Amino acid sequence: MMTLKKLNDGDHRTFSLIARAAFANPFSPEREALDRRIAAVEGDVGRDELFAMVAVRAKEALSKLGIPDLRHYGGEDRELLRHAYLFDVYHRYREEFDGFIRRQIAAGDVPCRSLFAREVLSDLTSVGFENAEALRYLAIFYQIRRAFYFIDGTLAGLCPSMQTLRRHLWDNIFTSDIRRYEKLLWNRMEDFSTLLLGETGTGKGAAAAAIGRSGFIPYNANKGCFAESFTRNFIHLNLSQYPETLIESELFGHRKGAFTGAIGDYAGAFSRCPPHGTIFLDEIGDLSLPVQTKLLQVLQDRVFYPVGSHEQQRFNGRVIAATNRPLETMRRDGRFRDDFYYRLCSDILVMPPLRQRLAEDPGELEAMVRVILLRMLGGQGEELVDFVCSTLVDSVGPIYHWPGNVRELEQAIRRILVTGHYQGEAGAITSFSDPHLLDAVDKGTLGAQQLLAGYCQMLYRRHGTIEAVARCTGLDRRTVKKHLG
């Protein structure tokens, strides 16, 4: 019988920290604290630099043991080494995964061959992972890299609410315990629907895409590629653009002759969605009660019928829904079914409006402008950031309400690049009680129109009528209405 090796106390402590870091949400304060302990660093260190330092530390700790065969260790020592080795292999191939993601984006819906995947599998099986385990962990590595790529790359922002959103998105994909996820839930997440709430233009589509493109996709060793392209795995359907007579066809498909104009069979979104895919139902609040009822059946029973057909089809994907409408009011008024709502809300994410983000951190504007410019100009445009930011402040002031949120900011940047200025919407001024407004008053940076509009809005919230605001200010009703927007 083989004598099992044991880790010494120092190695045990090191690998315990590495294991905790490996399973921590990378956007969480907990992960940063663990990384700093492992790397033994203090002071100002960038996140990516800190990740790299921890990866080197894990590699050094494993190198001290030679090439550790997991079968030579038992109990907790084996588990710690498993986690540390998975962490090491993941970081060893991080750049290859990122390059592969970019190639797959360029290739579109046809799965690319992943030449480095065989090396990853070999590295895992050589230290004692079973073939099935190695295949699953390869797919999870790929999933983790995609989640980080899309959450970090498409949902920019430094303010607390955006940091919270990124943490929440990560948990939505991997749950709050990735150990539980990789043991029990990696192939069951289709049962967990998500509801995205927030104003128009806050980025609900970007959040949905980050989740939908980061689902688990198995690796096909025979073909040398992953089973699907993540670009095909995410289906976005804006429900508000379809008339009531066509919405069921877009969702469930139809058979030839099912209605006037149905000249052939049509595969709806639920038919097109692959087994590991995600359907994003945007503007879910626009659905009629009959369509809500049919979607409820899909979520409950996982089956549906194309229009004009009695042939049952099965749906195996995940559903994300979004709306900017007040669902609580709609449920109370009977316009949105309670049972449908409860089928959608396994998780609820609320997108922060831009005015909240700017109130939390005034530096958020510069960060957003930089990201939008670089994306808009293909990685160029850094030299335009100061110009755009100063033009925005000069044009709409520091207390502009941004009613169109990030979408409006994107168009404002385009307009500044074309015309050199941005006017904004009349009356879109933040609450007069807002600390940033009061600070602007104190500093003397407000224009007369901005000050008057803010004062009118504060009075309207206090008294509730245009007449009362007119009496307080001495303005006529028409002028008050203009300042209230």
Automatic annotation (TrEMBL):
Annotated InterPro entries: AAA+_ATPase, P-loop_NTPase, Sigma_54_int
Sigma-54 factor interaction domain ranges (all copies): 155-418
CDD domains in the cross-refs: AAA
Annotated protein name in UniProt: Sigma-54-dependent transcriptional regulator
SMART domains: AAA
Pfam hit, one: Sigma54_activat
Keyword Mitochondrion: no
Top-rank taxon: Bacteria
Lineage: Bacteria, Pseudomonadati, Thermodesulfobacteriota, Desulfuromonadia, Desulfuromonadales
